[in-house]
Amino acid sequence: MKKITILFLGFSLLSNTLVFSQEERDRVITTAVPFLLIAADARAAGMGDQGVATSADAFSQQWNPAKYAFINNEQGIGVSYTPYLSNIVNDIFLGNLTYFNKLDDRSAVAASLRYFSLGSIETQGGFEESPLILSPNELTLDVSYALKLSDNISMAVAGRYLRSDLKLAVNDEDATAASTFGVDVAAYYQSDNIVFESFDGRVRAGANISNIGPKIKYDEVGQENFIPTNFKVGGGFDFIFDPSNRLGTYLEFNKLLVPTPKDFNGDGEIDAEDEEEYNNIGAIEGIFKSFGDAPDGFGEELREVTWAFGAEYVYQDQFSLRTGYFNESDTKGSRKFVAVGAGFKYAPVVIDVSYLFSTSDVVSPLEGTLRFGLIFHFGEEFANN
Length: 385
Known about the structure:
This protein is mainly beta. It has helices at 4-14, 22-25, 42-46, 60-63, 272-279, 283-289, 298-303, and strands at 73-83, 92-102, 107-118, 121-123, 132-134, 137-148, 153-165, 178-190, 194-195, 200-212, 216-217, 224-225, 230-242, 245-256, 305-315, 319-327, 336-346, 349-358, 370-381. The longest helix has 11 residues, at 4-14.
């Protein structure tokens, strides 16, 4: 068990609120339920936290559910575990459980549960009172449907329920969890094999607008907080050297579709009045504002875009090696890291692991973390990948 300060330390790291230089530091975009932006599976984590344009797998729900229409297996279950702040505590973690079912050659459904535990917290109001053990947590439950529009293009929609139980019932026995919902709209393209002189190739591309939905509110009189509506877009190319050797290379860009905090009244600082005006922006209005509201113009808008580059080598569809790099501007959160990973397939079971090396002055909460994933496949196989 930990003191309550550990909870807020973890959240400040997760929300990218660590300090930089002043004016643009105040414009770092933060949202509620930021755990939705953490890679929940080891395969994507091993390629630099990306998956919008990679080949389909059981964990496509987080990255691009449209990929399920191209998945090779009829059914599958994926389970993953990511320790968080593991160098400080041992009971904060992100867990994910996903199930998919390919209905036929053109369509698929999937459902997933993502659970973020902030561990156990012991609170005590006075010396004579018995300690109260609290377990703050957040979770999402979502379902999706994917459909091929042609032999090479698919689209998907997903609905998501979000629940955030962070209100500590120390002095308020009526404390309740906050909740809202979100919708994803995704698209995926996978080309036929392209024959070159010494190898075959395959082009992949994907896009996903995720978590489109109302703000979340923790109490009746408190402010509403944006959820992390996010736009992902990426592409990739597979080098197919022979039936046993394949190398996939991928590039992905991400932008939060959330307004940039700024000095609305022009007094030189972001104060309570500016925060009130910011909080009055609606969720859908905020999506459109997010493309052009940065005070420093287009240059700052570009700094709000993160990018990741990754590669995956696959041998005989049984063994995989992965690496990737993730980059975020120093003034917008400064998440920068190199990731490595590996995958092993034995019969219907796939085991994935990944590891992260921070390259930023701001140490990642996932530094030194070994992530794990298991996938169990069932039913017949399809020839898509």
